[in-house]
Amino acid sequence: MSVTGIFPEVVVDLDGHPIHIKELAKLHVLILITLKAGWCPVCPQLLQILNIYGLQNEPPEIFQDPFNRSIIAKVPPEDLPFNRLLLKSDAYFIIICPGPADEVRRIQELCNFSKYPYPFIVDEDLSLASHIGLRMSRTEILPFIGHIYPETRMIFPINWGRGPGIYGHDKLLKYLYGYRIRVEKKAFEHVSKAKELEIPFKKVTDTILSIGNLENRTFQKQIFPIELFAQVFEYIESREMMKTVMATCRQWRAIGFDIISMRMRQAVNDVLESLVTDPQINRGDVNKIYKIILPADKKAISVHELDLRIKDLDIITEIIWRLVAQTPVIME
What digits encode the pLDDT tens for the residues 260-283? Predict the structure, then answer.
């Protein structure tokens, strides 16, 4: 279920800068956080907790709720790298508060959010809150955490309400974890499909290369070395290569097959190296939380970048599937 209304395409932040929502939502898991009012002492605690869970570079180990003195967060140091991946690479935050502006800026600075790129939106007349169905009263916004979808700018609710000891950070982290797992599960499935083509494509490639080598030996007026052609063709986009270069002659087709094969291996490796979860876990329940420890030397990327790598792999996979399907006809 989504919140009533659709988030505007552009809003203006506390400093007067336009914020293009659709573009941000395409690049990140765009998380909307609303604060009830500038005077509310409870809502900013969520931002403090997010600092402790990984937004802050050197966070304190625990967060003690100022209202009931309970320990809200005790984050082991080994958990911080994965938390940071979720909070700083995958997610991007936009915070809305009724105002006035100086009160919103005070909250931003108090929570150390002034050093982050996350925009704070002053909704003094609550027109934005009304537009997205989160107006609570004449002067207050309903405390809320949600995900703004890139395609529609509709808002998927992650957590409603906020109070002492109940800030919604756990549901937010679980949501980001689940989102990451789903993308990595998709990545693993697409790699598996690509690998299914390895054997048939190798047979086709070996055949094409043998014919290409034979033609190369019998072609008496070779103007350029075949290695030079290969280097030039590497700069051509894969789909364009299939349409033009590989349709020119069998010799060029052989070079194209070799380059496509190399790109396939690279695309598979790029995706696999980007995964931070166990593929066996990915096959299970994405709603179940598993402890994930990122190695210190792991170069993790955001889910957006991973999704781009999956799309690159899909392009190569589709090309290889077509080549495997078409080659028997071409070889006759």
Answer: 888 899 999 999 999 987 655 545
Is 178 part of a structural domain of the chain? no
Report whether pLDDT(329) > 60.
no
Q: Is 157 exposed, middle or buried (0-12, 13-18, 19+ CB in 10 A)?
A: middle
Please tell me the distance from the alpha carbon of residue 146 to that of residue 281, in angstroms, as a whole number: 26
The rounded distance, in Å, linking the Cα atoms of 325 and 319 is 10
Same domain, 309 and 216: yes
Over pLDDT 90: what percentage of the chain? 56
Q: Is the CB of residue 124 less than 8 Å from the CB of residue 49?
A: no
242-266 core/surface letters (b: 16 or more CB in 10 A; e: else): beebbeeeebbbbbbbbbbbebbee
pLDDT digits 0-9 by tens, 10-31 = 999 999 999 999 999 999 999 9
Same domain for 146 and 27:
yes
For 58, the enclosing helix (H) or strand (E) is none
Contact 128, 8 (CB under 8 A): yes
- Other beta carbons within 10 angstroms of residue 217's beta carbon come to 9
- Whether residue 29 sits in one domain with residue 71: yes
Q: How far is CA 15 from CA 11, 110, 121, 139, 329, in A?
A: 11, 17, 9, 22, 63
DSSP letter at 189 equals H
Q: What's the per-residue H, E or C state across 10-35?
A: EEECCCCCEEEHHHHHHHCEEEEEEC
Task: Report the distance separating Cα 299 and Cα 278, nearest Å.
Answer: 16
Chosen domain end from 167, 198, 219: 167
